[in-house]
Write a structure and sequence with these properties.
Distance between the termini: 41 Å
Shape: globular
Structural class: mainly alpha
Order of helices and strands: HHHHHHHHHHHHHH
Number of domains: 2
Helix content: over 70%
Oligomer: single chain
Strand content: under 5%
CATH architecture of the largest domain: Orthogonal Bundle
CATH superfamily of the largest domain: UbiA prenyltransferase
């Protein structure tokens, strides 16, 4: 793969996009009793993948100056991708995502449009709002489970609400962790992250609380009889991962360690996603 293609992929963050698509599918499987409509599955994955990609590109467009200091190797500050090219990319991704949601159903178009608006607002202004911005992006990450339910049944089942809550709190913990990682560059944009406003130690404790809230919710679907042992096994593995992240972050709440832990947290969230999928096998 040549350098330009790799730069576009880095801008897109395909792993994040695929995770959002899988989250929507989990919602569809659960809402349809494991018999989702194949055409709707295709449309929903396209919507989740492209709108997530759009939000990633828009985020980097607003973060160019911060990234010049925090991550100068990234596609935009390094010059591998021009700003106008990134804008075109974001517009194309957004158009495809909204079009596929419109074909699915009016309620899906509404949810997808709301997601796109929240994601854009977060990149434009939400980051400066500190914790409020963290909440906005966490809602954006958790909403695919509800979107999947809307694709198939236009309702929100109890199990999907549990998954929504776990995804929200784990993502919120990761967003606060990212604030610690970016503490040196965030003042360039006037970002009022918890780490900048109250200090890295306070931010580390807040992130830890969020991760542990996600962990605390994990037994609820099993205790309610909504999922079986496969879910519990994978969820326990994710719980161990989150507890380890919390312990390591509290021990060393410095930017370099936070950058490493935010990547680890993403992989732990992927294990959690697998647990959600296994929950549908009950």
């Amino acid at each position: 793969m040549n350098g330009r293609a790799a730069a576009y992929l880095q801008l897109l963050r395909p792993l994040n996009c695929v995770m959002m698509g899988l989250a929507v599918w989990i919602g569809q499987f659960l809402a349809s009793s494991w018999h989702p409509n194949p055409m709707k599955m295709t449309l929903s994955f396209v919507t989740a993948f492209t709108l997530t990609g759009m939000s990633m590109v828009v985020n980097d467009l607003y973060d160019i100056e911060v990234d010049r200091r925090n991550a100068p190797h990234r596609p935009l500050p390094s010059g591998m991708v021009e700003r106008r090219e990134a804008i075109t990319m974001a517009l194309l991704l957004g158009t495809v995502g909204l079009a596929s949601s419109a074909v699915t159903s009016p309620i899906c178009l509404f949810i997808a449009g709301l997601f796109a608006a929240i994601a854009t607002a977060y990149s434009a202004r939400g980051k400066q709002a500190g914790l409020i911005g963290n909440v906005l992006v966490s809602l954006s990450v958790a909403v695919p489970f509800l979107y999947g339910g809307a694709v198939e049944a236009e309702t929100a089942e109890t199990l999907l609400l549990y998954f929504f809550a776990m995804a929200f709190f784990s993502c919120l913990g990761r967003e606060i962790t990212k604030g610690i990682a970016d503490v040196e560059g965030d003042p360039l944009r006037g970002v009022r992250s918890l780490a900048l406003t109250y200090g890295k130690n306070v931010a580390a404790r807040a992130a830890g609380i969020c991760y542990l809230l996600a962990v605390a919710i994990t037994p609820a679907p099993y205790a309610s009889g909504l999922v079986g042992p496969p879910y519990l096994a994978l969820a326990a593995a994710a719980d161990v991962g989150f507890v380890a992240v919390v312990a390591l972050l509290l021990r060393d709440p410095e930017p370099e360690n936070a950058r490493r832990l935010k990547r680890i947290a993403l992989y732990v969230m992927l294990v959690g996603l697998a647990a959600f999928f296994a929950g549908g096998l009950h």
